[in-house]
Structure formats: structure tokens, C-alpha cells
From TrEMBL:
Belongs to the anti-sigma-factor antagonist family. This is Anti-sigma factor antagonist. Transmembrane segments: none annotated. It comes from the Bacteria. Pfam families: STAS. Residues 5-115 form the STAS domain. It comes from Micromonospora tarensis.
Length: 115
């Protein structure tokens, strides 16, 4: 599968909502990162939705870190959606991912970004 098979991007409430799907791992993480950054170049705010992600290895975590850092460097607020239950949220909690950047749903993330 290509990175395009792993990402869906749409505008909603003035923000770009990036939905990632399936496994984000060493085989595709760099391509996902590149494609997301290119597609959200002018974003005023970004939601990265991980609710469709089934596996996130160290390369996937690095990809997420690079995306968050890039958006913050662009002065674009970013929120990461990871449902409270599931392996991805467990992984993010385990590594100490910034809890202030996490939301449980897209609606919560958009509310935070547009408040």
C-alpha cells in the first residue's frame, strides 16, 4: 500500500482533518509524513485523527512527532485524536506523548482548535 492509501485529508471548520488508516510503520511512515506535510502546507489548524490506525511502531511514532513539530513550527495549532480505548492510545500514553495535544474524538479536537 502507498501513503495515499493511509491518509484522507479534508477541511472542516477552517481546519485540516488528517485521517490516518491502517498500520503506520517503517514501511510507510516517511511517505505518510511527506504527503501529509505537503497537503497541509497552508493549514491554519490541524487535527491528526488516529482512530483508524491499527498499529503504530517506532517509525510511526517518529512520523507523528515530526508532524506535530512541523505544525507547531508553522504556528498551526494541532490536536491528535486517539480514542480513549485502544492500542494506539495505550502506546501514546505509555511513551508519555503530550497529553495536552490529545483528544478522544474529532468533535472534541475541532472544538479545542476553534475555541
Amino acid at each position: 500500500m502507498t501513503a495515499e492509501d493511509r491518509t484522507t485529508i479534508r477541511s472542516e471548520q477552517g481546519c485540516e482533518v488528517v485521517r490516518l488508516h491502517g498500520e503506520i510503520d517503517h514501511g510507510n511512515a516517511e511517505l505518510v509524513e511527506r504527503d501529509v506535510l505537503a497537503a497541509t502546507r497552508a493549514a491554519a489548524g490541524v487535527v491528526i485523527d488516529l482512530s483508524g490506525v491499527t498499529f503504530l511502531d517506532s517509525a510511526g511514532l517518529r512520523c507523528l512527532d515530526h508532524l506535530v513539530t512541523a505544525f507547531r513550527n508553522r504556528q498551526a495549532p494541532v490536536v491528535v485524536v486517539a480514542p480513549d480505548q485502544g492500542v494506539v492510545r495505550f502506546t501514546l500514553d505509555l511513551i508519555g506523548f503530550l497529553p495536552g495535544l490529545l483528544a478522544s474524538s474529532i468533535d472534541d479536537a475541532l472544538a479545542e482548535l476553534t475555541a
